[in-house]
Amino acid sequence: MILAEEDTVPGWRLLIPLPEEIVWSAIFLLIFAGVFMKFVLPRMNAVLDERSEKIEGGIRHAEQVQEQADQLRNDQEQELAAARQEAAAIREKARADGQKIVDEARARAEAENERVLSAGRQQLNAERVAASTELRGEVGNLASDLASKIVGESLTDDERSRRVIDRFLDDLESSQTTTR
Amino acid sequence: MEAASGTAPIENDTEARHPAVGPRPREIELNTADLSPTLHAEEDSFFHIPTLGDFFPDAILFEGTVFEFNRVQLVRLIVLAAVLIFMCIVASRAKLVPGRVQSAVELVIDFVNNNIIANTLGLKDGKRFAPMLITMFVFILSMNLAGVVPGLNLAGTSVIGLPLLMALWTFVTYVGAGIRKHGFLGYLRAETMPPGIPWPIYILLIPIELLQVVVIRWASLTIRLLANMVAGHMMIVVFIGMTHALLFSGDWLIAISPFAGAMAIGIYGFEIFVAALQAFIFTMLTAVYIQLATSDEH
């Protein structure tokens, strides 16, 4: 049956283009290609190109912004580092200055101390000398008075009396030093 | 369809008489081979066996002139109008931020650009041929898909006119591109005398390569597309027709009809795939031929 029907339309006819077939195919192909290539594709390509341009522009812009941000951050970091360094230097200097001030103050205080001490000591010495001289005079008078009263005889002979008093005082001093 | 059913009843009538006068009832019971003739006999009214006549339907308009308009041309005209109107609407409304429909169209354009042109000609050199290749792809794809659209049922590329003209368009394009690049003799030399081959081989090689460039390339493009679409139509019609015939056989054969139906659906899906694949292959080969013609060295 199939064979019988193939007799009516033989297979080779598939490969033989009839004139009307070619004419209509050509018309359809020309219409399609014309409209598609002259109107549809240019429009679509324009839109596609515009979009890719926009995207590329956006990407480039983003890159620029990123670059600027990086630059800024770098600058800031550098500034920060510089500031930190400066701060450290200032702190160091302050510490050194403080130390110096303290040292100076201490030196000054020590000097003052020394001075006060030596002045005191000198004054003390002077006072002691003065006191001892005064004391010596008074004790001498008292002693001579006492002695004259005891002896009854005036020790008018100054030379002798002074000798006696000095001996007495020396004894007194020596006894004082031994008892101390 | 009309042509086939016009001749079918006569054939079936003659066959229908055979089992009646032939074997006796006992023999019929035993002989399962005779079932198929009875099937034919019973289903002659609706089991449409596909024939090549499907591709040569009767004229609708202008019969006998060069502008004879038949069902194939009608299918093509409908597809052409539908696709062009759709594309023009999409293109005229094209926006920077695409909608769903525009994205789908852009997907097709990008597919040709990225998978065909970028892989063969390169996007830069291929820019010149991109409109042609995209047009080809869309045209072949839509014409192929007509074969699986219910109601149209026939691919626009399953009759030789369109495949042949498309293939000749390819031929003219690649020869033109080659001649523009190398000059006429230079192009012939570049295509037929690949360098690095000892000269005696050229005696054999030149005629083969020449035949290839001048005939075989476009002929094979034509026949590949045509044969695929013809075979696809045949298969779909056979399986759908068989399902139909089995289902209405009023016999135990009804039990098989779901399998035939599943096959029909499978073939239907396969045909959609083939439609896309053939469009891709045709466009791809066109790009490759152009690339061969315009390349500096083989």
Describe the structure.
The radius of gyration of chain A is 66 Å and the shape is rod-shaped. Chain A has one domain. Helix content of chain A is 90%, strand content 0%. With 180 residues, chain A is mainly α. Chain A has helices at residues 2-8, 19-151, 158-179. Chain B folds into 2 domains: 1-45, no CATH class; 83-294, no CATH class. In chain B, helix 5 (100-120) packs across helix 10 (257-294). In chain B, strands 1-2 form a two-stranded antiparallel sheet. In chain B, 71% of the residues lie in helices and 2% in strands. Chain B is globular, with a radius of gyration of 25 Å. Chain B has 10 helices and 2 strands; from the N terminus they run H-H-H-E-E-H-H-H-H-H-H-H. Chain B has 298 residues and is mainly alpha-helical. Classes of the chains: A mainly alpha (180), B mainly alpha (298). At the A-B interface, helix 1 and helix 2 of A face helix 1, helix 4, helix 5, helix 6 and helix 7 of B. Chain A: Belongs to the ATPase B chain family. Chain A: This is ATP synthase subunit b. Chain A: It is found in: Cell membrane.
Tag the structure with descriptive keywords.
heterodimer, A: 180 residues, mainly alpha, 3 helices, rod-shaped, disordered N terminus, B: 298 residues, 2 domains, two-stranded antiparallel ribbon
What is the compact description of this entry?
Chain A: InterPro entries: ATP_synth_B-like_membr_sf, ATP_synth_b/b'su_bac/chlpt, ATP_synth_F0_bsu_bac, ATP_synthase_B_chain. The complex is a heterodimer of chains A (180) and B (298). Chain A is 90% helix and 0% strand.
Q: Which helices and strands occur, and which strands form pairs?
A:
The complex is a heterodimer of chains A (180) and B (298).
Chain A: H1 2-8, H2 19-151, H3 158-179
Chain B: H1 2-21, H2 25-30, H3 35-43, E1 59-61, E2 69-70, H4 71-92, H5 100-120, H6 130-145, H7 161-182, H8 184-192, H9 199-247, H10 257-294
Antiparallel strand pairs in B: 1-2
